[in-house]
Automatic annotation (TrEMBL):
Gene3D superfamilies: Hotdog Thioesterase. The lineage of its organism: Bacteria, Pseudomonadati, Pseudomonadota, Gammaproteobacteria, Cellvibrionales. Its EC number is 3.1.2.-. This is Acyl-CoA thioesterase YbgC. Keywords: Hydrolase.
Length: 153
């Protein structure tokens, strides 16, 4: 779903399904806190893949997309065998960064929410650089027309 942008609503959405396997959990069957970040990374990666930009594109373009900052709030635990929905909402796009709002849900229950800022850097200098034009244009199309809205795997 894409809506008119404002300060409180996401601009574009992407959905990715994942199941909590035993390797994701601690001895009590609760998903280990670090694995939520893995789930979010997969959703962001798959959203870019759905736009036509896989990891080989990024490495071929001499850029890296790296986590610049992250704020996360764990509300309820996921447990072994839960089917989870990982959301990636584009909240902002700047010349050298993308800001995502990411939620993880079990059914309609919100388990985790985070804000993740991704920076575009030159892989040789490790300094911020402008996103390649084709990537920026694809992200803007996603925001404007929601061409990824409602995608679920």
């Amino acid at each position: 779903m894409v809506s008119t942008p404002n300060k409180t609503q996401p601009l574009a959405e992407f959905f990715w399904r994942v199941r909590a396997y035993i390797e994701d959990t601690d001895a009590g069957g609760i998903v280990y806190h670090g694995n939520y970040l893995n789930y979010m990374e997969r959703a962001r990666t798959e959203s870019l893949r759905a736009l036509g930009f896989d990891k080989t594109y990024v490495t071929g373009a001499e850029i890296l997309l790296v986590v610049h900052s992250l704020a996360i709030d764990y509300k309820q635990p996921a447990v072994l065998d839960d089917e989870l929905l990982v959301e990636a909402h584009v909240m902002g796009l700047k010349r050298t960064s993308i800001t995502f709002r990411q939620n993880i849900l079990r059914g309609t229950e919100l388990l985790t929410e985070a804000t993740v800022k991704i920076a575009c850097i030159n892989k040789n200098t490790m300094r911020p650089v402008a996103m390649p034009d084709e990537l920026s244009a694809a992200l803007r199309r996603w925001i404007d027309v929601g061409e990824l809205a409602g995608v679920a795997m």
